[in-house]
Amino acid sequence: MSTRTYHVRTFGCQMNVHDSERIAGLLDDAGFAKAGSNDADVVVLNTCAVRENADNKLYGNLGHLASRKSAHPGMQIAVGGCLAQKDRDEIVRRAPWVDVVFGTHNVGSLPALLERARIEQEAQVEIVEALETFPSSLPSRRESPYSAWVAISVGCNNTCTFCIVPALRGREKDRRPGDVLAEVEALVADGVIEVTLLGQNVNAYGVEFGDRYAFGKLLRTVGSVEGLERVRFTSPHPRDFTDDVIAAMAETPAVMPQLHMPLQSGSDRVLKAMRRSYRQKRYLDIVSRVREAMPEAAITTDIIVGFPGETEEDFQETLHVVREARFASAFTFQYSKRPGTPAAEMDGHVPPEVVRDRYQRLTELVEEIAWDEARKAVGRPVEVLVADGEGRKDDETRRWSGRARDNRLVHFSVPDDVPRPRPGDMVTVEVTHAAPHYLVADSASAGGRYEVRRTTAGDAYERANRASTAGTSTATASASPGGVMLGMPSVGTPEPEPAGDACCSSPS
To answer: Which CDD domains match (predicted)?
Structure first.
């Protein structure tokens, strides 16, 4: 009997991407082999429930898969993630060709559910209400040999009125610091040089075991692991952002000068309606203290436009914060009504044409400021972690791409007469051009600065590439080493959708 194959398609936030790595690892462990989306015997859709059109996206994908399944005897379709946790049996009712529905709390059950559905020839729907196994204790198939997610918590204790995620992910559960450290050390031993600490409300870490300073301590501890060069985290909540965390960031060389901190709105009145437990002054004070401690830090954010009841005056307050904070970039969203959230029942929904106008004005301001901030890098050296798949036009422009320490995307030239860097290696170049969303460093083309430092991560990439070329499959090597999004691995194709309304990645 030939080996059965699988494909994981991911929608939504970083936590979903991390879960998809675990899903892939579980299927590898169960004897499946990774395949392309058009050839797989098992297709897993890991869903997001944040935006209003999430349902349409899921059922549209399932409609396309129905014809494939009818022409592919034995093919199975599984649906997991937040939308599965929410809709449950409704998925099988609307798409009876689905074989398995599993939720956010029982990812580890997927192989058994697939086997049960195959034997019984009947759809299996299994949703549990509490986390069974912390995701990081499950097998993983990382798409990047040099960069990894490390989940330190799951769930969220906040009650933001626009966000459905806490109802689907549950209350916050924290891993013990020793378990986190052990995973990081194991990753570094495997060649990883960059980790991103992940949680829906990452800097609330420690709330479950009663240590409000636990996150700052964890940053210092993880940042001291020998061989680990870059530590990032996402996404923090302004309410929980304390001075000890800022100090840990500034004083730990491996912690990168980058902060993604959701704003959502600059209006105190709207923040109160959103049930966000901070106000404009608190947010800007954090930005000021971060910049004082790390002048080179790049600060990014999430902003929602058109929340119910938002007035032009409220919107102007958001623009004021954007001007004051001078974000390196921002994920901007038009408010999307989500059934099951308190905001969906609020009065004063903003007319769509007004939302679109405000959204346009916001994105223009964000882009203008981002470009101004990026221009400051021109003429300066940057250290770039070389990535595989970051630059979509690299072949066309004959450039390579990667991420700077502050997480900006950098496209750089390589001299013709030197060996090419490997993904995972570090390259130091000088920035020659800036755009709102990326930097260009063509210093090497003019005989200027170009330095390569080979790393253990580059060695790991080389090993993974040899393994995939030889047709082998391991739990840590992709069949074709994958791209890195925001300095972190992506899973499946198409690439993960942006987190709608910015709350699945940071229901903060």
So the answer is: Radical_SAM (cd01335)
* Residues of the binding site for [4Fe-4S] cluster: 13, 48, 82, 156, 160, 163
3-class DSSP assignment, residue 243: helix
Q: Which residues are annotated as part of the binding site?
A: 13, 48, 82, 156, 160, 163
Q: Give SS3 for 412.
A: strand
Look at residues 256, 273, 290 and tell me which one is the last residue of a structural domain.
256
pLDDT tens, position by position, 308-325: 999 999 999 999 999 999
Share of the chain above pLDDT 90, in %: 66
Question: Could you tell me if 302 and 395 lie in one domain?
Answer: no
- Residue 476 exposed, middle or buried by CB count within 10 Å (0-12, 13-18, 19+): buried
Helix, strand counts (H, E) of the chain: 15, 23
Question: In this structure, are residues 14 and 488 in contact, taking their beta carbons and an 8 Å threshold?
Answer: yes
pLDDT tens per residue across span 352-393: 999 999 999 999 999 999 999 999 999 999 999 999 988 777
Q: Are residues 277 and 356 in the same domain?
A: yes
Per the structure block, which two tokens stand in for 189?
């031993």
Domain termination site, one of 227, 256, 285: 256
Both 215 and 282 in one domain: the answer is no
Q: What is the mean pLDDT of residues 420-438?
A: 96
Four-point Cα dihedral 483, 489, 492, 495, nearest 10: -70
